[in-house]
Here is the input.
Amino acid sequence: MSALLQANDLRRHYRVRSGEGFFAPKSVLRAVDGVSLRLERGRTLGLVGESGCGKSTTGKLVLGLVPPTSGTVRYRGQPLPPVGTSAWRGLRRHIQMVYQDPLGALDRRLPIGTQIEEPLSIHEQVSPVERRDRARAAMESVGLQPHQYERYPHELSGGQRQRVVLARALMTSPGLLVCDEPISALDVSIQAQVVNLLLDLQERLGIAYLFISHDLKVVRQVSHDVAVMYLGRIVEQGEAESLFATPAHPYTRALVAAIPTVNFGGGRQRERFLLQGDPPNPVNVPSGCAFHTRCPFATAQCRAETPTLQPLPGGRMVACHRVHEPALGVAA
Ligand code: SF4
Here is the structure.
C-alpha cells in the first residue's frame, strides 16, 4: 500500500556567490541533499536539527512551494504536479501549512472569519452561508468562540491566532499538515495548549503531521517517527520512542543529551555529550561525514568517506561509519 506521503532522494541546491562582489565565484549550497521520507495517514513524523540544516526547505519541497533540483514527492501515490498548475492547486487543498508566526500568516486588515473561509473560496464552489457555517464549525473544533468570528488578528492572543491558522488549514479537510515550528513563537504556557490541540485533531480527524522543530522535547511528545537532519542530509531516522531512548548517531546523541529533562526509562544514565562549535558553512560542507568536524569519534575514514543510511535492528536507519562498533558505546 502506498504511503500518504513519500519523498524520494529529494535535493534542493542553490547557486550562490561564495565571496563579496559581483565577480565572486559561485558555489553550490546543498540545502537539501538526498532526503527520503515516508509518512502514513494519522501519524506524525518529527523533522529535527539545528537552524540551517534544511528542515524548513524540506517542508517547502513537500508542499511543492519550492521545486526540487531532483527527486520526487508523491502524495497518496501520485506525483506532486508542477507548482502553479491547476492540478497543483487542487492537490494543495489536501496538504496545508502551519507557520511559526501566526500573525505573519494572517492578514491584519481582515476579520478572522473571512480569513478562515478563504480556502473554501479558492478550492470549492460553496454558498456564502455554507462557507460561514463551515468556518464557525472549524473555529469550534479548534476551541475558538463564535463571537471571535468578527475579530481582527491583533485582537487575539498568540495562541488564539495559531488556532485561527489551524482552523483555516482544516477548512479543506487536509490529510497532511506541514507544521514548521508551529509553537516556537508562543509563550511556554500556550505551547502546551496548542500541542494538545494538534494531538486531539489528529486523533479525531486522522490528519498526518510533518512536524518541523528544533525543540526535541516537543517533537518527542507529538511524533511517532523522527528524522534527524544535519547539513541537508538525514543522519538518523526511526521510531520516536526508541530513538529518544537510545540515540545511535553521535549528532542525535548530542541533541538528545541537550534536552532539559528527559526520562530515558529503564534506568539508563543520561549521557553527557555536548555539541562543540557551530555547524559548518553549508556552502562548504566538510568532506566525508559532514559531522566529522564536531564528532569526538571521527577517524580518517570519516574525513574521507560519506556514510550512507544503514539499517539497525528495529528499523532504525543511521548514517555513521562507526555505529556498529561496541567501542563507540552506541546502544541502538
Ligand atoms: Fe562521527 Fe565518523 Fe560517525 Fe560521522 S561517521 S558521526 S564522524 S563516527
